[in-house]
Amino acid sequence: MNEFFRLDDAACVKCGACVRDCAFKALARGADGAPVLTHPERCMRCQHCFAICPTGAVTFDGRRASDARATAGLELPSAAAVDNWLHVRRSTRQFAAADVDPAVLDRVLTSLGSVPTGCNARALTFTCYPNRASLARFKDAFIRAIEEHRDGAKLLPRWLAVPAIRLRRGGDDLFFRNAAGMLIVSSDETNPAVTTPHEDVIATLAYFEMLAQANGLATCWCGFLKLVQKEVPELLEKAAGIRRTTPFYAMLFGKSAVRYPRTVQRDSYAVIDYR
Ligand SMILES: Cc1cc2nc3c(=O)[nH]c(=O)nc-3n(C[C@H](O)[C@H](O)[C@H](O)COP(=O)(O)O)c2cc1C
Predict the structure, then answer these.
(1) What are the angstrom distances between the C-alpha of 122 and each of 197, 198, 240, 250?
(2) Which CATH code of 3.20.20.480, 3.30.930.10, 3.30.70.20, 2.80.10.50 fits the domain covering 5-67?
């Protein structure tokens, strides 16, 4: 038996649920009907065999059923609550001058470790600037990188140079919206096991937006840093260590300075094309 998949023979009821749910057929039923890990190289460590076992007979990577959350009776949002959340969530571009509770942020980031990733690769890095002081250090490094930037006679693009001057002078913060913090989610483009690096990053931040707003934080996608990576990648490399090829996206967060008493009324959110 392979080390990471262990079976409590006495507890196994040989129902075959784990074998049927194994995405890449790493498990097969043995002569007595109990699961056998016949193709460990196919296993993507999704732990479905562990999660689906009705008697908790599977131990995976040393994790026992008794350590996991039992799903029966767990408090979950209703369909109506999720629908309301989707309508009520907003991109906040006016943040209050206040830090967020580090315990809340920690809870959100810990939950975020459970996001799905393509082929369960989970090769994500969460680079977090958790408060205003930390984000200010990033902004300083970023502005310093802009000031030190030399590229022959080529000038920095206007969309970057003009707001940067304003930011340095303590004026409007068009880049970071005076947010309290920023989360950069990045993937590893050098890891051959990562099949969907860009999708993993965006999906993770969509979950972050949901978790953060459910915890009373405001958020805003920060696409500006993507433009920087595309147009002047050395700036981001200097300020945050993000290479020109690193798949990443950023999200600002903080307390909202505004309240929206109603949802928006879009004509249509998407074309629904039943076939
Ligand atoms: C992938 C992605 C990137 C985005 N980038 C930015 C951005 O760079 N700046 C920004 O202010 N909003 C950004 N947004 C937020 C959208 O502009 C926003 O969803 C839209 O304006 C509708 O507002 P709402 O989110 O409040 O419904 C982004 C959203 C997504 C999904």
Answers:
(1) 9, 12, 21, 18
(2) 3.30.70.20
Mutate to test the pocket of ligand 1, among 198, 205, 221, 227 (most ligand atoms within 8 A of CB): 221
Spacing, Cα 210 to ligand 1 middle (Å) = 14
Q: How far apart are CA 212 and CA 105, in angstroms?
A: 8
Q: What is the DSSP string of 38-92?
A: S-GGG-----HHHHH-TT--EEETTB-GGGSPP-TT-----HHHHHHHHHH--B-
Q: Which CATH architecture has domain 82-254?
A: 3-Layer(aba) Sandwich (3.40)
Question: What are the structural domain ranges in the chain?
Answer: 5-67, 82-254
pLDDT tens profile 195-250? 999 999 999 999 999 999 999 999 999 999 999 999 999 999 999 999 999 999 99
Residue type at position 194: V
Q: Is the pTM above the cut of 0.70?
A: yes
C-beta of 217 in contact with ligand 1 (< 6 A): no
